[in-house]
Amino acid sequence: MTATPGDADVPDRVRDMVAARQQQLATVGADPQALAEQLRQVFEEFTELRMHYQFGIDEVLTKVEILRKEFEQMHDYSPIEHVRTRLKSVESLVEKALRTEGEMTVRAIRERIHDIAGIRITCSFVSDAYWVAEMLAAQGDLEVLTVKDYIASPKANGYRSLHLIVRVPVYLSTHVEQVPVELQIRTIAMDFWASVEHKLSYKYERNLPPELRAELDDAARVADDLDARMERLRGEIRPMPVHEGSLFAQRPAPPAEG
Ligand code: GTP
Ligand code: MG
C-alpha cells in the first residue's frame, strides 16, 4: 500500500514535533541516563509493536490468499485481483501519535491508531468488492470493528472504497495479541483514481489548482461510470454471487442489465 496522504509530508513535521518533545523533556531536567534508558525502552516497545502488526498482516493476508487460490483453482475466476500490504513506518506512526494528541505510551497508541497494519484488496467489479468484504467478515476469527462504505457514500473529493477495521488474533509464545488491521477493498478503477489523487495531493500539498480539481472530479465520474459498465458485463464472466451479507446497509443495487 502506498503511504497515506497524511503520511506523505512526514519527515519535516516529525522532526519538528520530535524536537519540541525533546525540548519538553529537557526542560523537566531529566537525568540523561534515565532519559537514555527510557528512550531505549520506547524503541524496544515500538519494535515489538510493529512486529505484532506485521504478524496481523500475515494472518489476514493468508486468509485473502486462501480465498484467491481457492477461487482460482475451483472456479477459474477470482473476485480478488491484487493484494498489497503495508506496515506503517515508525516515522509515520510517531507523527500520527503526536498529531492525534494522546498519551505516547504503546498501549495508548494502539488504542487510538487503527491503521498501523493495512491491506488493500483490488477487485474487478463493485459487487466483488462487497462480496470479498462479506466473506472475510464472516470468518469466525476476524472481528469487524468498523465499516466505512465510501462506495455507497463517496468522500466529497470523489474517493470511493470500502474500509473495514478487523481484529485478528495472533498467537505468540506466551499469549494471544488481538491486532487490528485496516482493509481497503475497491475496484481497479477506484484504485487507479485514488492513486492519482494521492500523488496529486502530495505534490500540491492538498491545495490543488481548481483546473486539476475539476479534472479529478471528472475522472471520478468516469471511474464510477466504468465500474457501472463493467458490472453490467460481469454476468458474462461469472454470475452474481448469491450471498446474504449483513455488513452494508446501504449497498447500492446492482445495475440493471442492458
Ligand atoms: P486517516 O487518519 O488518514 O487514516 O483517516 P481516517 O481515520 O479518517 O480513515 P479513512 O477511512 O477516512 O481513511 C483511511 C485511509 O483511506 C487513508 O489513510 C488513505 O489510505 C485512504 N483514503 C481516505 N481518503 C482518501 C482520499 O481522499 N484519497 C486517497 N487517495 N486515499 C484516501
Ligand atoms: Mg491512514
Short description:
This protein has 258 residues and is of the alpha+beta class. The protein contains 8 helices and 5 strands; from the N terminus they run H-H-H-E-H-H-E-H-E-E-E-H-H.
Would you write up a description of this structure?
The protein is built from eight helices and five strands. The chain has helices spanning 5-8, 10-27, 32-75, 90-99, 106-112, 126-137, 188-203, 210-237, and strands at 82-87, 117-123, 143-149, 162-171, 176-187. A five-stranded mixed sheet has the order 1-2-5-4-3. Strand 4 (162-171) and strand 5 form a beta hairpin. Helix 2 (10-27) crosses helix 4 and helix 7 (188-203) packs antiparallel against helix 8 (210-237). The radius of gyration is 21 Å and the shape is flat. The model is unreliable at 3-8 (pLDDT under 50). Guanosine-5'-triphosphate is lined by residues 4-6, 115, 148, 155, 157, 159, 163, 184, 194, 197-198.
